[in-house]
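Hypothesis: this fold can be encoded by more than one sequence.
Test: take the C-alpha cells below, design a sequence, compare later.
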C-alpha cells in the first residue's frame, strides 16, 4: 500500500533570513558574522515534518511573487519538496531573525 498524499495549503510562505551576532551592543554598530537564508512558513515546515515522519507524502500549494518567491521556489526544488505555486504580482514576504 502506498503512502497517502496530503495536499497542503501554505498561504503564508516566507523567505527567512537569520543573522547571527557575537553579542548585542546597544548604541553601537552591530555586524552579523553569519547569515542563513531558507524557505519557511507553516505550510513549508509542515511538508518538511511530514517528510521526516515518512508515513505520507505532500504536495504544497502556495502563492509566490517577486525575487523572494523565486528564491523559495528554487529552495523547495533543491529540497525536492513537491509544490504548486500560484504567481502573484507582489513579492512574497521576507522575515528576519537576529540571534546573539
Amino acid at each position: 500500500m502506498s503512502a497517502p498524499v496530503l495536499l497542503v495549503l501554505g498561504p503564508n510562505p516566507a523567505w527567512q533570513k537569520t543573522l547571527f551576532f557575537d553579542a548585542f551592543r546597544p548604541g553601537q554598530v552591530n555586524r552579523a558574522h553569519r547569515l542563513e537564508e531558507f524557505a519557511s512558513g507553516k505550510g513549508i515546515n509542515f511538508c518538511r515534518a511530514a517528510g521526516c515522519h515518512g508515513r505520507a507524502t505532500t504536495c504544497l500549494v502556495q502563492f509566490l511573487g517577486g525575487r523572494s518567491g523565486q528564491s523559495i521556489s528554487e529552495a523547495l526544488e533543491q529540497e525536492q519538496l513537491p509544490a504548486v505555486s500560484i504567481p502573484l504580482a507582489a513579492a512574497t514576504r521576507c522575515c528576519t531573525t537576529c540571534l546573539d
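The chain has two helices and six strands. The first helix runs from residue 42 to 53.
Hypothesis status: open.
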